[in-house]
Design a protein that fits this description.
This protein is α/β, with parallel strands linked by helices. The chain folds into 2 domains: about 190 residues, 3-Layer(aba) Sandwich (Rossmann fold), CATH 3.40.50.300; about 60 residues, Alpha-Beta Plaits (2-Layer Sandwich), CATH 3.30.70. The protein contains 10 helices and 10 strands. It has a 6-stranded mixed β-sheet with strand order 2-3-4-1-5-6, sandwiched between helices. The mean pLDDT is about 90.
Length: about 280
């Protein structure tokens, strides 16, 4: 990876994504092989490396559960031996950027998941790391909060040049945050290239979920498949190589009175399966 690069490291469950991050951060020792992060061997020089990297695990908090985030921030400042004035300046900047001022004195256990994740990422950036490892940073978050987290990570990457190494099952994370993607399966790299190429080659469908004010009566259009429907609700799959999503939604809006609409990417597992099947054919 180059400095400042944003890379998605993706694969099916059990492929070794989280294990790889734990090896690269020095938490785990590999049974074989070599790795170098910023010129250091992670499992041999973990303490030196820790001062230069940050890590966020979506399903494991680094904040003390019963304490307010500010206490965890203060403790991390001592762990990283940050000079007090520099620490307070850095903390103030991150608090403003991540909009977590109202939550600093609230015990972590009382924060929403979105509020906690913003505090988690801010905590990982206190010591100005050169690389930020993100393991499922948006898991369990709603659409609005996911986008806010993505925007903040991008802003830090652009402002400070921090390198981003991401694992996620969310295609939106990969599409928005990263320019390069690596796909692994059973310990083998089966794709290493641009996210734009990945998107154009494999991310060909969108899922539209509708809640209608009137009963569903069908919708015939090229590239549109009805996945399921129950009275006033329907889920459609749209092949965007055949029908642009704007064209389909416009057609639906002109035909139905719509109470709610949601447009999603297919599950990352499905995209990875396509890549894996293509690799097997080759």
């Amino acid at each position: 990876m180059d400095e400042g690069e944003r890379v998605a490291f993706i694969g099916p469950n059990g492929a070794g994504k989280s294990t790889t991050i734990k090896i690269l951060t020095g938490i785990l020792h590999p049974t074989s092989g070599n790795a170098s992060v910023l010129g250091l061997v992670p499992w041999k020089q973990r303490q030196q490396l820790a001062y230069q990297i940050g890590a966020v695990f979506g399903q494991k908090s680094q904040l003390w559960y019963h304490l307010p985030p500010v206490d965890s921030f203060d403790l991390l400042a001592h762990i990283y031996a940050l000079e007090p004035a520099a620490y307070h300046e850095r903390r103030a900047m991150l608090v403003e950027l991540f909009e977590i001022g109202p939550h600093l004195q609230t015990p972590v256990r009382k924060l929403s998941l979105g509020e906690r994740m913003r505090c988690e990422i801010a905590a990982s950036l206190l010591h100005r790391p050169r690389i930020l490892f993100l393991d499922e940073p948006t898991i369990g978050l709603d659409v609005v909060v996911k986008q806010r987290i993505r925007d903040l990570i991008l802003e830090l990457n652009q402002q400070e040049g921090v390198t981003v190494f991401l694992t996620s099952h969310d295609a939106g994370d990969v599409e928005v945050l990263c320019k390069r993607a690596m796909v692994i399966n059973h310990g083998e790299v089966i794709y290493d290239g641009g996210v734009t190429e990945l998107k154009h080659t494999y991310l060909r469908t969108k899922i539209i979920s509708l809640k209608l004010a009137v009963p569903w009566q069908g919708f015939d259009a090229p590239g549109v498949t009805v996945l399921k429907h129950t009275g006033y609700g329907v889920k459609l799959e749209v092949d965007t190589t055949v029908a642009p999503i704007e064209q389909v939604t416009s057609g639906l809006l002109s035909r139905y009175s719509i109470v709610d609409i949601n447009i999603d990417n297919p599950q990352m597992e499905a995209i990875i399966a396509q890549i894996y099947n293509a690799a097997q054919v080759v």
